[in-house]
Structure formats: structure tokens, C-alpha cells
Amino acid sequence: MSERFSVALAGLRDTIPLTVGTTPFAVIFGTLVVSAGLPPEMALALSTIVFAGSAQFISISLISGGAALPVIWLTTFVINLRHALYSATVQPVTKAWPLPWRVLGAFWLTDECFAVFERRLQTVGERDALPYYLGSTISFYLNWVGWTAVGAYLGNRIPGVATLGLDFAMIATFAAMIAPQLKALTPVAVAATAGSVAWIAQGLPYKLGLMLAALAGVAVGVVLDCFRRRLAAKEAA
Amino acid sequence: MTDTLWLAILGMFVATYMVRASFIVFGQKLRFPPAVVQALSHVPVAVLTAIVVPEAIAPGGQPDLSWTNPYLVGTLVAGLVAWKTRRILMAVLVSFIVFGAMRWLG
Questions:
Q1: Which residues contact residue A134 at a Cβ distance below 8 angstroms, ignoring those fewer than 6 apart?
Q2: Minimal CA–CA distance to A209: which of A42, A82, A61?
Q3: Can you say whether residue A217 is alpha, beta or left, with left for phi > 0 and alpha for psi between -120 and 50 degrees?
């Protein structure tokens, strides 16, 4: 077994907890697409081509809610903006990689694999970073795509899957992602604003209320940040 | 699959890949102004809340602010467990049990 291959296997192994943790979501996603009345190929196409869990889930609720294409694209962009931070973080390491591997490697950059890769860089360093990253990301990707297919297949087979309330999985996951951050005034105000505006504006066509609510929430966050900076400046003076 | 669905996927691919490739492929020529970075830090909470609130309060389109709305109660449970424990997967699991119990028993 070559050195590189065993490093790739180490990458695969270190990613297993996260691969396993996301498996239920892949299955639910595949099933959800079918239960939303969309073709099962849609599930597979999204997991294979877009490969971004939260954006995939949101797109299903947007598409079945009659959202306009630009709203779907913009929401995807906004949801995924955090990846720019990951991209910037790994850049000093990936700049040594040949361009084709950088182009492909960027496609596989997810929250989970970033976390694993970042840890490897901090513990072992940059040695054999490429095979490690590929072992981690490719196994994670294949698992996500494979279980999406299983979910879509099950969705097609199980009668009445649309009435099971699988859409709740997405809502619960998002609520669980937001809640731990609601421990300071600013995020609470951001969430309260975005939630209220989303509620009031939900009658707007093409799901435009979502964009409006997100914008209002961010605006409140920016204003509060400004206030805090002013206060801090005053205290320092 | 209709053309609209393929267009949706294509645009989503571009929107996702551009962000991931930003620094890895295009290098250090990119810079975010600090004000933008700070504004971006509010985006996840704002977007996710904007998605969750209408779906939890009015799952079928009709507002239902009662304790018999499994979406609303389930969402609150998920949020509460995650807030307390910071364990997302467990929060989802617990809320799913509550949600399921309300759906099938209620």
C-alpha cells in the first residue's frame, strides 16, 4: 500500500463520525424531494451537482413554495457564504496543489470536511495534506450521494410518504443550529427581526419575504454592532 | 425533470461553487472588507430564522399558534434542547420524537 493511499485512508477514517452523522439527513433529503412531489432524479442531481446540505433542503421548500429562480439562487449563495471563510482558511495550504486538484477540491469543501481538515493541519501539519483531504472529502461525498439515492428510492416506494411530515426534519435542524447562538443581545435581536418580518411578509410572491426578512435581520445586526462600537469608543475616551 | 428544475440546480451549483472556490482557486487577490465580514456574521441566524418561523407557525399555510401544532411545539423543543446542550443531532432526535408522538397520537 502506497504512502499516499494510507494517508487518504486516514482522511476517510477521521471523517467517519461526520459521515455517519449526516447519513440520516441524506436519506431524509432524498425522501423529502419525492414527498414534495418532485422527481427522484432531482434529489440525486442536487446532491451530486450542488452538494450543500442546508441549501439543498431549503431549495426544496422554496421550489415547492413557488419561489422565483433568482430567489432560489440568491438564498443558496447567502446560505453558503460561510464557505468563503473556509476557503480563505485553507488557501495557504491548497496553494501548493496543482490547479486541477484545487478546482476539484474546492467543490468538495463542506462544513464537515473543513472541520476534519483543519484539525489535521493543526495536529499533523501540511504534510500529505492533499491525499488526506481527498480521502476525507471523496468518501464524504460518495456517502452523501449514495444515501440520497436510497432516500429517493424509499420515497418512491413508501406509500403516503408525503404525509409523514419529513419537512419537519429541516425545520428542527435549523432551529437547533440557531438556538445555541441566541445567548447575546445582538443575535437575539437579529433572529427576532428576521422571524417577525418573515411572518408578516410571507404572503409576498416568489418567497420574496425570505429575502426581505434576512435583509432586515442583518440590518438590525449591523446597527447594533455600530452602537456597540460607539459605546466602546466613548468608554475608551 | 423540467428545464426550470435544471436551471435551478445549475444556478445553485454556480452560487455554491463560486463561494467555495473563491480563495482556493482564485487565490489571495480576494479581500473582504471588515465591515462586510461583520455583516456576514449575522446572515446564518437571519436566514435560518426567516425560514423556520413561518414553517413552524403556519405549516399548512394556516397560522396555528396552539399547543396542538406539532411543527410549532417540535421546533421549540429542538431549539430548547440545542440551546441547553449544544448537541444538534440530539436536539433533532428529541424534537422528532415529540413531533412524531403529537402527529400519531394527537
A1: A8, A11, A101, A105
A2: A61
A3: alpha
What's phi and psi for A229, nearest 5 deg? -65, -45
Instruction: Determine the pLDDT at residue A110.
Output: 93
Cell of A91: 488557501
This prediction has a pTM of 0.82
State CA B93 to chain mean position distance: 16
CB atoms within 10 A of CB B106: 10
pLDDT band of residue A42 (cuts 50, 70, 90) is very high
Interface confidence: ipTM more than 0.90: no
Candidate from B8-22, B27-41, B77-91 with smallest mean pLDDT: B27-41
- The whole-angstrom distance between B50's CA and the closest CA on chain A is 5
- The backbone torsions φ and ψ at residue A201, rounded to the nearest 5 degrees and listed phi first, read -95, 10
For an interface test with B, the pick among A81, A86, A117 (most B C-beta atoms closer than 10 Å) comes out as A81
The H-assigned helical ranges of A46-128 are 53-64, 69-80, 82-94, 99-107, 111-123
d(CA B18, CA B4): 21
B14: which chain A residues are within 8 Å (Cβ-Cβ)?
73
Eight-state DSSP code of residue A160: T
Range A155-172 average pLDDT: 82
pLDDT averaged over every residue in chain A: 91
Best interface-test mutation with A: which of B9, B20, B85 has the largest number of A CBs within 10 A? B20
CB contact under 8 A, B42 and A197: no
Segments of chain A assigned E as strands: none
